[in-house]
Amino acid sequence: MTRVLVIDDEQPILRALRINLAAHKYEVSTAADGASGLAAMARDRPDVLILDLGLPDMDGTEVIKGVRGWSSVPIIVLSAWGQESAKIAALDAGADDYVTKPFGMGELLARLRVALRRASPAPDEPVITTGDITVDLAAKRVLRAGADVRLTPTEWQLLEVLVRNRERLVTQRQLLQEVWGPEYGTEGNYLRVYMAHLRRKLEADPSGPRYLRTEPGIGYRFTCAGSEVSPPGGRSS
Amino acid sequence: MTRVLVIDDEQPILRALRINLAAHKYEVSTAADGASGLAAMARDRPDVLILDLGLPDMDGTEVIKGVRGWSSVPIIVLSAWGQESAKIAALDAGADDYVTKPFGMGELLARLRVALRRASPAPDEPVITTGDITVDLAAKRVLRAGADVRLTPTEWQLLEVLVRNRERLVTQRQLLQEVWGPEYGTEGNYLRVYMAHLRRKLEADPSGPRYLRTEPGIGYRFTCAGSEVSPPGGRSS
DNA sequence: GACCGGCGTTAAGACGGCGTCAAGATCGGC
DNA sequence: GCCGATCTTGACGCCGTCTTAACGCCGGTC
After folding, report:
1. Which residues of chain B does A84 touch, with a Cβ-Cβ cutoff of 8 Å?
2. DSSP element (H, E) containing A28
3. Which value, in Å, is the radius of gyration of the alpha carbons in chain A?
4. Confidence of residue B233 (pLDDT cuts 50, 70, 90)
5. Which of A111, A171, B118, B162 is a plausible cystine mate for B222, CB 3.0–4.6 Å?
6. Which of A76, A107, A136 to mutate to test the interface with B (most CBs of B within 10 A)?
């Protein structure tokens, strides 16, 4: 879950933020002054920081600089004052955004989404590693025992769908529609041909696959914890 | 110099922005409606976009989506209306920041600095060296075996995109859109011609490229650890 | 024990992509 | 206005990929 740290000394605002953020499935921690806020930053390692400039013990820009000294976490600044110079100072100190009170909660949440969207260019794990196969979804690259494996476009698309749904069973219909298009759904032939290609390129023993498993009558499954092909009798799933 | 594109239909604001931005050493281009704004985006390739939501011909979020379809340049939205729903829609459509009129020029400039600061995550080596090729992204120079290589503008742009995504597979569509513009996407011809140019200038054996690899049916990849072209041996298909 | 359907495997032909070359169009400098 | 460099566009041969069909094997079913 996404973690948010709120540093603010005004109880009503703190309470409103905590309720609204929690309602949107954020994990919220809070601090009431700059010193404890910096300590909380180091301790909790939040994914984003919401910081009120009007703290009792420190100047807001000092808090920003303290954070920026070691972290590049997104910082959204809140402020009750409309002073433009304070805004500029905070932004130039390293803040990512600045919201003036009173603000709408919807707007703050939207700016939060922007900050998080930018901070995470990798929405999902781009690299999947099994015993001796490594699949890099971002680079569109497959390594087997450290060596590059050349895949054709169709082979790659098929592998990508399976890896994105790793450990899960993918039906033939779903595979056909995601790789060949929505009008396909019955051409089980294609799957058999291309699964054979993939197994020949990736499996040590193509006829006894460890990673690219067949689920008879239903579909296929890419499994990471590829145990040896169990001899008849030792199956336990 | 940093290039800024301003899309706004109100002449006074356009004028004020042009003067202030030019005074801070930005290179400013302008457009007065959404359609010509999108065209200017493709033509001028600015480093940041300032967009007014109240355009005469298109909805602001449509402009944002049109840009986001092929570019990730920072977008700062201006708006005369205080409507929170419009803010949220713009931010979720892909905008990076939102400033409500009337705004202070100092604040806008500070938010501009934030957007640009974030957009240039190039503190890491702008110089990439492989076996005998050195690419200096900052100086826009290419050395091969220590000697300067003259590239035409298009050749350089193509090489730059590939090197920025080194080791990663870049699709033909992405290359075409980043080099030629968003309206291109199917002209695979251009890529073949210019890849041939680059290979002739950079590769020892242009027909057996070590660095500028083709991924048939998908795109191209610049690879640093350029191993020799694998001699035909383990191929079976 | 015979039948049948699903799966793996292989092979062959059609098709499209890629590299290459060259000529025309366009732009900018002198 | 001329000339060179650069970009665009078309054509062509080759090779890899996709499609499709056929066959054997194994399981389950009757």
Report:
1. 104, 106-107
2. strand A27-31
3. 25
4. very low
5. B162
6. A107
Judged by CB atoms closer than 8 Å, whether chains meet at A87 and B110 is answered as yes
- Give the residue carrying structure tokens 């001699």: B231
Interface contact flag, A97 B97, Cβ < 8 Å = yes
Burial class (CB in 10 A: 0-12, 13-18, 19+), B159: buried
pLDDT of residue A15: 92
Query: Is A141 within 8 Å of B169 when comparing Cβ atoms?
Result: yes
Residue B203 has, within 13 A of its CA and on its CB side, a CA count of 23
Nearest nucleotide to B207 by CA–C1' distance?
C19
Residue A152 has its nearest CB partner, among B85, B98, B217, at: B217
User: Measured between alpha carbons, how far is A220 from A191 in angstroms, rounded to an integer?
Assistant: 9
Considering the entire predicted model, what is its pTM? Answer: 0.73
Residues of chain A with a CB closer than 8 angstroms to some CB in chain B: 84-85, 87-88, 91-92, 95-98, 104, 106-107, 109-111, 113-114, 118, 138-141, 152-153, 156, 197, 200
The verdict on a CB contact (< 8 Å) between B113 and A92 is yes
Between the CA of B56 and the C1' of C27, what is the distance in angstroms?
A: 35
pLDDT tens track, chain A, 237 positions: 889 999 999 999 999 999 999 999 999 999 999 999 999 998 888 999 999 998 989 888 999 999 998 888 999 999 876 788 888 999 999 999 999 888 889 999 999 999 998 876 655 567 888 888 899 988 899 998 888 888 999 999 999 999 888 888 888 888 888 888 888 877 778 888 899 999 998 888 878 888 888 888 888 989 886 555 444 333 333
Q: Which nucleotides of C are covered by protein (CB under 7 A)?
A: 6-11, 17-22
Residue B103: pLDDT band by 50, 70, 90 thresholds? confident
The residue whose two tokens read 């690899």 is B213
Nearest CA distance, B7 vs chain A (angstrom): 21
Per this entry, what is the length of chain B?
A: 237
Q: pLDDT at position B125, please? A: 59
Residues 6+ apart with CB under 8 A from B99: B76, B77, B78, B79, B107, B108, B111
